[in-house]
């Protein structure tokens, strides 16, 4: 009868909710531990000049390999970290680690490149965000022009004064600012015009849809808009030659994706840098 069904449904919900609750709690505790025990690391994915194939920069992406649960993707644990406030120490660890790694590669005399890190919207609520980033650069002895931050459109939605102040301060230090996952949020042309944005990253969902007339139209429109506003434009998630060709024809500046390289561990990335240096030497 209806009543029984209702009760069953109630039971199901609580079990489901409890499962979700336990796993969230476990993730939270385990993440705290991982942070303390230094069990997190970064992977690096190159950003490529679409015309020349040259590497222009690299994005640092957070990785967590749990001893029992295995690899947990950032899309799973970052929202939890945001919910419980752990994103603040986590985000700080990412920035400090990325800056030190970039400096290390510069010291090894690989051609210098800009390294970007993803910043959660919640990190902009952090009172001392700008000071923390300045300190990370100082600690690593890295110039600000080799650091880029990737923010999503949600950072800009409310035109929050405090957030804009922080963005301007970071920009004034010489840090590059890009809008990640562009096209999926709500930022207006006004944001792009008035805020200190350097790069627009076209969301992977539009790029992976190529060739498809709707996605072609969207991607072309974003590229034209970026050109008109004198912003750099990068396509995320480029997986095929066809996508690459289309983006080149449309005048997209940079691309990132499995076609060129997946995000890879530091030692693997270093090997790639080493090989490139060798190639370059034999060119001369
Ligand atoms: P994102 O910043 O937009 O990063 C791009 C994601 O697309 C990465 O997933 C990358 O591995 C993946 N990707 C790159 N090229 C391709 C491709 O050709 N095909 C496909 N299918 N995927 C591709 P990942 O590393 O799992 O990260 C997912 C999201 O988690 C990131 O999206 C970012 O929003 C967040 N994230 C990662 N690391 C951090 C971090 O340190 N801090 C914060 N706040 N968020 C992070
Ligand atoms: Mg990103
Ligand atoms: Mg993205
Ligand atoms: Mg994303």
UniProtKB/TrEMBL annotation:
Coiled coil feature spans: none
Protein name: Phytochrome-like protein cph2
Organism: Aneurinibacillus soli
From-to range in the entire protein, with total length: 287 to 570 of 570
